[in-house]
Amino acid sequence: MKKSKPTDIPRQQVPEQTPEKRIKNFSEVPHGYSEEQAQTESLRCLQCKKAPCVKGCPVEINIPQFINAIKEGRFLESAAIIKQTNNLPGVCGRVCPQEEQCEKVCVVGKMSQPVSIGKLERFAADMEQQSGKIKIPAIKEEKKEKVAIVGSGPAGLTAAADLRKMGYQVTVYEALHRPGGVLVYGIPEFRLPNKIVEAEIHVLEELGVEIRTNVLIGQTKTIQDLMKSYQAVFIAVGAGLPRFMNIPGENLPGIFSANEYLTRSNLMKAYRFPDHTTPLPQFKKVAVIGGGNVALDSARTAQRYGAEKVYLVYRRSREEMPARKEEIVHAEEEGIEFALLQNPVEYIEGTNGQVCAARIQKMELGEPDESGRRRPKPIPGSEYELPVDAVIVAIGTKPQKVILQTLPDLKLNEKGNIDVDPNTGMTSLPGVFAGGDIVTGAATVIEAMGAGKTAARGIDHYIQEKKRS
């Protein structure tokens, strides 16, 4: 019998909830691979010696090695290989944009569809969790030096884990009542279940990372206070301040930032309605402004709360949408109406004092802008009114000033983000490092994790050099 070549094996499709069923619940949409599917998909990997996929991974996972372990049925070992460099595999396997990173440069992808690296990572992580045999990473050698991490999102958690494995005494400070940052307040349950984040944070605590919640650095304590007790500080607070368009009517009741809307849903348990008191009103017609993952998360969340109609209003075309293609397809399947090449110019007040409509202007695409995407231009005389009783604005975020205003000597870049040495994560203040969205602006979870790894290495080098001097 002729043996199949890896490129002859079709990419395995993950089973999912049907659109009709999933729009009525907050359960995870994809179910994940079965053992048979995962091992079949693993056969597609060519086991490249100079694997471009590894270079395409911001957290440097040995991708051929972990996939080979799956192929041979060594599932727990596969998870252990991933966790050598990535402490949040269950998270990354669900929300990392692999199609733009490791899978984009997969050699198999030049001949057919790339290996489904992300789905295999999720499989390995889930198998470890289901086994109950969670492997706690080893600590090289205990050190007496202490490091403070400000923020428990993906950058902070990654730096904390790496530094702890190096032997440092690590304390994470989180302003909210639960750790996880954007992983728990910004990403809906149907994309990233809270139990996955909680389980992976628990591993960090078992490793010896101390997490202190309800501590707002910049108010309760300052960075200067922390530097008196710690040898280094890593600022990883994200960019949690929402951006608005500053158009007429934007302050009307019924208009939310995506940050507020998703935080109410995810962190305040509105997704458990009616079993949990919901901090969100029920709306009938909702317009979501934006074309990124946050906009799609908001639109799909609003629909699950029973909205009769949800419009995704985006000023460019579908091709320019920055959201993951998988999420775009899911939203279309679920009946979200895409109002493309359209942009709000005003919100209209109803007789009850709430927003009752959005005045929308149609757009056309002109020459490319600095992002490489064609710049949208208004079409004169194309305005129309879209009846809505809620609007969710998801056009990006910027850094909070709580910490920054206490550090007048900290160098910022032209966008108001913290300026750092890209090789170390060091800021203009000795011993103070930063990474993630507070440096780059809103980016992906995996990019923030990559920044956390860079900062951990930079902090280690800084502390050891200071000891030698």
Description of the structure:
The structure is a single chain. The radius of gyration is 23 Å and the shape is globular. Helix 4 packs antiparallel against helix 5 (about 75-80), helix 4 (about 65-70) crosses helix 7 (about 115-130) and helix 12 (about 260-265) crosses helix 13. About 30% of the residues lie in helices and about 15% in strands. Helix 13 (about 295-305) links the parallel strand 7 (about 285-290) and strand 8. It has helices spanning about 20, 35-40, 50-55, 65-70, 75-80, 90-95, 115-130, 155-165, 180-185, 195-205, 225-230, 260-265, 295-305, 325-335, 435-440, 445-469, and strands at about 145-150, 170-175, 210, 230-235, 240, 255, 285-290, 310-315, 335-340, 340-350, 355-370, 375-380, 385, 390-395, 395-400, 430-435. The protein has three domains: about 5-130, Orthogonal Bundle (Fumarate Reductase Iron-sulfur Protein, Chain B, domain 2), CATH 1.10.1060.10; about 145-240 and about 400-469, FAD/NAD(P)-binding domain (3-Layer(bba) Sandwich); about 245-395, FAD/NAD(P)-binding domain (3-Layer(bba) Sandwich), CATH 3.50.50.60. With about 475 residues, the chain is of the alpha/beta class. The longest helix is centred in the C-terminal third of the chain and has 24 residues, at about 445-469.
Q: Uncertain segments of ≥5 residues (pLDDT<50)?
A: none
The proportion of residues in beta strands is: 15-25%
* Count of individual beta strands: 16
Strand order of the largest sheet: 3-2-1-4-16
Q: What is the 3D shape? A: globular
- Per CATH, the superfamily of the largest domain is FAD/NAD(P)-binding domain
Overall pLDDT: 94
